[in-house]
Amino acid sequence: MKKLLPYWLVAPYVVHMLVFVAFPVVFSVVLTFHRWNIISPMEFIGPDNYVRLFKDRLFWQALFNTFRFLLVHIPLQIGIALGLAELLNRTLRGAAFFRAAFFLPVIVSGVVVTILWQQLLSFNSGMLNRLIAGIGLPRVAWLDDPAVAMYSIAIMATWKNVGLYVILFLVGLQTVPPQYYEAADLEGATNWQKFRYITLPMINPTIFTVVVLSTIGGFSLFIEPYIMTEGGPLNSTLSAVMYIYQQAFQYYHMGYSATLGFFFALLILAVVAIQKRYVEQEI
Amino acid sequence: MSRVQLDHIAKAYGNGPRVIRDVNLDIQDKEFVVLVGPSGCGKSTLLRMIAGLEAITDGTLLIGDRRVNDVPPNERDIAMVFQNYALYPHMTVYENMAFGLKLRNMPKTEIKDRVTAAARLLEIENLLDRKPKDMSGGQRQRVAIGRAIVRNPQVFLFDEPLSNLDAKLRGQMRIELQKLHRDLQATMIYVTHDQIEAMTLGNRIVVLRNGDVQQFDTPITLYNQPVNRFVAGFIGTPPMNFLPGRLSGTGPLQFQSDQGAVTLDLSQSVHAPALASFRGHAVTLGIRAEHMSPVPVPGRSMPELTVQADAVEHTGNEALTYFHLDDQRFVARLPADLPLTFGQSFRLFWELDKCHFFDAETELAIR
């Protein structure tokens, strides 16, 4: 009995891993070679799902939309988070309050935040347009113009998540020993030079972490377009994950959806590998 | 000309008490001055004030006859070596040394010349492509010094630069720093808590305590003529032995320890004239470990005491022998071949003229 104790202790985790991670991964890979609508039995169709994927213009558009979102969201998020962290890293009065305030949206439910922003960005009754109209400028179709909607969502997602990255950057900044800045002061470095030559290289591991986390987070874009725009207008905010969801749970194309998911996971892996190659630097 | 003058310099943080109080120092051109004192005495703060990393609350700081109180660090023409080296880990040795020159937009060829010359001086030419993490503590220390040298500053500031090195390396680096001072002919101000470093490196030493200068003098003067009990106890290894007592009020001039273990006739000693005005006062006697001997030196006034060894530390060339007088712990530096062991009683002769006396109230030396 005593010999078995260690196995009993690790059993819950192993069972959890097998049921909720290993099995779904293996099953979804198996699914990519089948047609299955949950109700009927699975039908083996070979590589048909993969062939279909490469011909599916809507999927490629959803991918393109996702990249468009990332292109705005990641730089915006990193820039704002780093800027705010720099400010909060100084001995500011009320720094603790601001740290908490910036983090608050992170812990609020995504659905709640999205509904809030939906109201804020509404064409007719939104507060933002009322402000714009108030100063005599034309109203903007934040969520109704295909050219604008995805960027509106990117800004909203940035607002929602930036607090987490502020904290990560703050931790990164606080690991830089103050002597480095003092040595730079003696050398006559300006604030910008200190930031460029000391802070940025020193917090590179944090930057890399933030880039990877926000890339993965960005690729998972779902709640915002699902609630705010339902992928519209004209599929301009249809994200890859939303499309995968639609294939699975609206059309019950479980095999095809699994194929999209599998392909998408490989794509994320490739993007992160590229980031690792070009962003990460050894200190 | 790189004279550094501190005129009534003081420092307080916010409305708090002054951590540096009215410091006056005149450090001459090309002098090597060491600031020494226990932790929290304000030596690093004082150095950082000279560097411009800490604001000066009161007083005037002159570097080369120019008032620099409000001059930013980079315009003071100084270079500083930090305790933890502060080498940028993402830069190579070359980049670290060239960083300051690059910021000044110096031509690349001149940067290269200066870095190469400094690297040659410090014998680190083969390390220029390495990063700090690939080097030993001693090598990093040299690079940190090299980074200071390339700027060719008027004044070098060192903030406990050897404290992260092992004892053997510290000894080597001390010698190299002396050589560097000779080669560069620059003013150097050096902070340490290690009084051996202070004694071996400094042309003059500033002993600090609680933000006050206790004594600013040559090492040998500090050792032989400490101005107060603190300096006497701080300078020297092992530290000076102290014995509280009282001088006789009348009759022959005598020192008697508080608990009566020691009575010394001082009427024929060199101290007699100075001590005369302290008759009847409480004084503290101080004697260094090497001024006690197991045999009397002919021709010297050497009173004899019999004591019992509490512990004997053999260091090879000497035996540090510990014993108690009254309730004070004493140590004597005795010859290594003396067959002494724990608990053994032995005779000890004191070099009376080498003793120091301090006013028990003010702790000032009586001379």
From TrEMBL, chain A:
What is the protein named?
Sugar ABC transporter permease
Which is a Pfam family this sequence falls into? BPD_transp_1
InterPro entries named among the record's database cross-references? ABC_transporter_permease, MetI-like, MetI-like_sf
Report the sequence similarity comment from the record: Belongs to the binding-protein-dependent transport system permease family.
Q: Where in the cell is it found?
A: Cell membrane
Q: Where is the ABC transmembrane type-1 domain positioned along the sequence?
A: 63-275
Biological processes, Gene Ontology terms: transmembrane transport
From TrEMBL, chain B:
Question: Is-annotated flag, keyword Transport?
Answer: yes
Can you cite an annotated GO cellular component?
ATP-binding cassette (ABC) transporter complex, substrate-binding subunit-containing
The GO annotation for biological process reads:
carbohydrate transport
PROSITE patterns per the UniProt record, alphabetical: ABC_TRANSPORTER_1, ABC_TRANSPORTER_2
Q: Which GO terms describe its molecular function?
A: ABC-type transporter activity; ATP binding; ATP hydrolysis activity
Which keywords, in A-to-Z order, does the entry hold? Answer: ATP-binding, Nucleotide-binding, Transport
Q: Which InterPro entries match?
A: AAA+_ATPase (IPR003593), ABC_transporter-like_ATP-bd (IPR003439), ABC_transporter-like_CS (IPR017871), ABC_transpr_MalK-like (IPR015855), ABC_transpr_MalK/UgpC-like (IPR047641), Mo/tungstate-bd_C_term_dom (IPR008995), NA-bd_OB-fold (IPR012340), OB_MalK-like (IPR040582)
The residue ranges of the ABC transporter domain are: 4-235
PANTHER family for this protein: MALTODEXTRIN IMPORT ATP-BINDING PROTEIN MSMX, OSMOPROTECTIVE COMPOUNDS UPTAKE ATP-BINDING PROTEIN GGTA
Q: What is this protein's record name?
A: sn-glycerol-3-phosphate ABC transporter ATP-binding protein UgpC
Organism field: Arsenicibacter rosenii
Name the lineage: Bacteria, Pseudomonadati, Bacteroidota, Cytophagia, Cytophagales
